[in-house]
Design goal:
Number of strands: 0
Structural class: mainly alpha
Largest sheet: none
Distance between the termini: 54 Å
Order of helices and strands: HHHHHHHHHHHHHHHHHHHH
Helix content: over 70%
Oligomer: single chain
Bound molecules: tryptophan
Radius of gyration: 21 Å
Shape: globular
Strand content: under 5%
Length: 460
């Protein structure tokens, strides 16, 4: 069967950027930045991207494009039959695991878009937002229904194929996402009192930076760039031989970081406008679904057209961001089952979709009827979240960098990177140095930190 490629360079970059720009950019990065030293954190974050993120992204691109195969197949080819082939399989598994809980949040963003557009937050007292959110997620039906819709959309895009599904949707959704982000940031920045919010986000405060902050910046860089599990490897398997790998990686990282910083410009000016303490807005779901709907209503005028428009666009933005990331995760698994088990794309995608539906529903219900099902004091959702984010991703990242730095043939690496000599690659030595030494060591520290080893040793 003929393997599809992306039709254009722009399409390829937008698809990869769609994978990278996701919930992580909005619900983690801004608050992490604000609390951990503003511009100082951003500088450290960018250094992490330069020192670790880009080398690993370029390696994933390279392995994907060189093999033109799904992640498991790609690693089987480049590993020459050695146990390194398991890195690819582990990546596919990790992505599938992430997808199971990611879709649950994707479904929530749809519900909140709906609530915003119907002006459901009008005259809701501040303390009620938590009740609304808890009531929604613990309800057995509503979140499941939205989950069905969200997964349905992913399935639709995936079954349409690489060019008319993934690429076309990315070309439509990424510019939309960008325009909405800029618009919301401008609105928020022009609110009275916005300057305090900008100051909170950007004022460099090096005294807040310690080893924990650095580790956090690293973890965030990995998650945000969709690294360490072969997501970008799968997308790169649809790159053509002329795609400049390093340049594309830089483009993706720049887009991802810009959107993350702009998300901060959307959030904090509004928070300061209503005189709320930014340290109390929470992070993740509580920030996004409890604090922010209230902040937006109050900052823009309760029930006003502006509040409705702003809030609707914000949740729609989250929806688009989550959708393009979820599509990329789904594609990893779909490409795997299709190619490794010789199925049609439609059948492969259906298999993945059904599995995600079942496990996603379990994750979703773990806030309601299944909330008593616990392992290590975590509900099903957190098990998927923690296991993939804290353990599988760092292990994957470490293995990929060690493989790319130590095992993969240097000449092959250089040839691919330079597109067979067409491009110059003056940074090649630095890249290999990072892959060999810096990345494995740094990720090893992140892994120990995520597993709570430092806390256990009372180093933190
Ligand atoms: N990068 C996405 C975000 O910021 C999430 C994501 C998509 C991801 N694919 C991934 C994270 C692969 C790690 C690995 O929300």
């Amino acid at each position: 069967m003929e393997r599809e490629n992306f039709g254009s360079k722009v399409g390829a970059i937008l698809a990869a950027a769609g994978s990278a720009v996701g919930l992580g950019n909005v619900w983690r990065f801004p608050i992490e930045t604000g609390q951990n030293g503003g511009a100082a954190f951003i500088i450290i974050y960018v250094l992490c991207i330069l020192a670790l993120g880009l080398p690993i992204m370029i390696s994933e691109f390279l392995i994907g494009r060189y093999t033109h195969a799904n992640t498991a197949g790609a690693f089987r080819i480049v590993s020459n039959g050695s146990p390194w082939k398991w890195v690819g399989r582990m990546g596919v598994f990790t992505g599938w695991f992430i997808l199971c809980y990611y879709v649950v949040v994707g479904a929530w963003t749809m519900h909140y878009t709906f609530l915003s557009v119907t002006n459901a937050f009008y005259e809701v007292p501040a303390r009620e937002y938590e009740t609304i959110f808890n009531g929604f997620v613990s309800n057995p039906w509503m979140p499941t229904l939205w989950l069905l819709v969200f997964i349905g959309v992913i399935h639709y895009v995936i079954t349409r194929g690489v060019q008319s599904g993934i690429e076309k949707s990315a070309k439509l959704m990424m510019p939309t996402l960008f325009v909405i982000t800029v618009f919301l940031a401008i609105c928020s920045v022009s609110l009275p009192g916005a300057s305090q919010g900008i100051e909170f986000l950007l004022r460099p405060d090096w005294s807040k930076v310690n080893s924990t902050v650095v580790l956090e910046a690293m973890g965030q860089a990995f998650y945000s760039l969709s690294l360490a599990m072969g997501c970008l490897c799968t997308y790169a398997s649809y790159f053509d031989k002329k795609t400049p790998l390093a340049k594309s990686a830089v483009n993706v990282a720049v887009i991802d970081t810009l959107i993350a910083i702009m998300a901060g410009f959307i959030i904090f000016p509004s928070v300061f406008n209503i005189g709320m303490d930014p340290n109390e807005v929470g992070v993740g779901a509580s920030l996004t679904f409890v604090s922010l709907p209230n902040v937006f209503q109050q900052a823009l005028g309760d029930g006003s057209v502006l509040a409705v428009v702003f809030s609707t666009l914000f949740y729609f933005l989250l929806f688009v961001a989550a959708l393009t990331s979820a599509i990329s995760l789904h594609e990893v698994a779909t490409a795997y089952v299709t190619e490794e088990f010789g199925m049609s794309r439609k059948r492969g995608a259906t298999l993945v979709t059904v599995s995600i539906l079942v496990l996603g529903t379990l994750c979703s219900l773990s806030f309601g009827p299944l909330s008593d099902v616990k392992l290590f004091d975590r509900n099903i959702f957190s098990i998927f979240d923690d296991l993939s984010g804290r353990i599988l991703l760092p292990i994957g990242g470490m293995l990929i960098s060690i493989f790319a730095g130590w095992v993969l043939d240097r000449k092959l690496y250089h040839d691919e990177l330079s597109n067979g000599g067409d491009l110059k690659a003056p940074y090649f030595k630095l890249l290999v140095f990072s892959l060999r030494y810096i990345a494995p060591l740094a990720i090893g520290l992140v892994l120990l930190d995520q597993m709570g080893v430092f806390q256990f040793l009372a180093l933190k």
